[in-house]
Amino acid sequence: MKRREVTFGGLLALLAIGSAGSVIGSALPAPDLERGRLVYETNCAICHGLDGNGRGMARHHFETPPADFRTGKFKFRSTPSGSLPLDADLFRTITQGVGRTGMIPQVHLDEADRRDVVAYIKTLSPRFGREEPQPPIPIPSTPDRTPEFMARGRALYFDAGCADCHGEGGKGDGPSARELTDDWGNPIRPADLTRLPRKSGPKPEDLYRTIGTGLDGTPMPSHADALTPEEIWALVAYLWGLPPKSEWANLGTLVDEEIVGFNVEKRHRQPLPPRGSPGPGAPAGSRKR
Questions:
Q1: pLDDT digits over 31-57, tens only?
Q2: Are 172 and 193 in contact (CB under 8 A)?
Q3: pLDDT digits (tens, 9 = 90+) for 213-235
């Protein structure tokens, strides 16, 4: 396979996903919660559970447990640590998926269905009824990735304690790695920073966002207060160089590696009825919770 040329500031072609920001906006129609319920129960409940508790019937097939939506804690956000995500954050995760987990890109759903399911997921946690998301952290323009900047990032990687969890070579095998658990008591391995695709997304800005916001519900903290924006970018510059050429070459063909035993997508997904037609099952208000 011919290797893709990837630049530090460029957009990587990952599973032909689109930009979430282009479809979440004020000009869009109000979401249809009933349609969102139908989309969720048809596509998401198999892993996340009907009530969003992360305990769907396929959960035991995955190393990384499906998210529990009831707590309102979301790993992949543009907002500060502890904040609810923006609608655009949820839309982005649904659209691009989470690399090397059972959360595959949901690009088979049209944009309206993805917006509707975002609105429905928000009904599964009471946090969305009593809190507003905080403003997103700003992401400055991508700087030049010079050897000096990368060397500074490498020094910060060790000074900031990243190697304690992610390991000296970034393989997720640091001295603290075996002891880590998430907020639900599940063992959680630090990311192998030499592997692609990355869970937070394919762009340098996605890495910046993860370092700045942290991953709520996990031991990965926010570094927005501990590091300056320039220092975060230096870290990104260093981390961008960790995956070997073979990872970049295979990026376009990488598939979900965490499904064990069967293909959840093919065996459990049912086709959605056309938009505007009544879906199967009881109305949302009559479903047991």
A1: 999 999 999 999 999 999 999 999 999
A2: yes
A3: 999 999 999 999 999 999 999 99
pLDDT confidence tier of residue 278, bands split at 50, 70 and 90: low
Is the pLDDT score of 199 beyond 80? yes
Spatial distance between the Cα atoms of 19 and 69, rounded to a whole number of angstroms: 23
> Which pTM was predicted?
0.81
- Which of the following CATH numbers is that of domain 147-243: 1.10.760.10, 3.40.1180.10, 3.10.690.10, 2.40.50.140? 1.10.760.10
For residue 234, what pLDDT is reported?
Answer: 97
What is the CATH superfamily name and number for domain 31-136+255-283?
Cytochrome c-like domain (1.10.760.10)
